Every structure is written in C-alpha cells, then in structure tokens.
C-alpha cells in the first residue's frame, strides 16, 4: 500500500491542458515548429508597418496631397497616426472575436489578410 502513487495523472482527450502536458512528456527537444510559426506571425505583424514608411514620402508627393515639400512630413505623420489609430480601435473588436471563436482562427485570418 505504501508503494502506490497518491496523485496519479489522469489525462482527458478533450482537455487542452492535458494535450500540452502530453506533448511536453513526449517531446524533450527544442520546439522548432512552434518557434517557426511564432516568427511567421511576428513577421506578418511587423511587415505592413515597416514597409509603409520608406514609400510614404513619395506617395504623398506623387498624389499631390501637400502643397509644399515642407508639408510632406506633416501629412506623413497623419498617415502613421491613422495606421496606429486603426489598430487601437480594432484591437478591442478582434479581442472579442478571439474570446468567442478562439485565438487560432483570428491569428490565421490576420496572417492571410495581410
């Protein structure tokens, strides 16, 4: 009786935490698949922001938005602020959608839509 384990682990198939525990027990190596997918998500998140600014000066100049060349920086600030304001206002919406339907469909939709 003293040799019996008091707290035996019991795994349920539909339990997400149990799946994580079983994966940790089966894989002792470095999680390359998870890191690759995380790097892909971070790249898809940063790429639209960082690729906009090198072309912003030429876009504002060629669309004749600014009347003088000195005003191009002023309007470029508006474009950058509008991008971030759009992220602020839609982050609450996407948070609600992620709570309702799960984070994976929202992340996949975000990657595909970029």
Automatic annotation (TrEMBL):
What GO CC annotations are associated with the protein? Answer: plant-type vacuole membrane; plasma membrane
Q: Which GO terms describe its molecular function?
A: solute:potassium antiporter activity
SUPFAM superfamilies xrefs: MFS general substrate transporter (SSF103473)
Q: Which domain of life is it from?
A: Eukaryota
Q: Major facilitator superfamily (MFS) profile domain: from which residue to which, for each copy?
A: 34-114
The yes or no answer to whether the keyword Membrane is present is yes
Among InterPro entries, the record links this protein to: MFS, MFS_dom, MFS_trans_sf
Family matches, as PANTHER family:
MAJOR FACILITATOR SUPERFAMILY DOMAIN-CONTAINING PROTEIN 10 (PTHR23504), PROTEIN ZINC INDUCED FACILITATOR-LIKE 1 (PTHR23504:SF114)
Q: What's the protein name?
A: Major facilitator superfamily (MFS) profile domain-containing protein
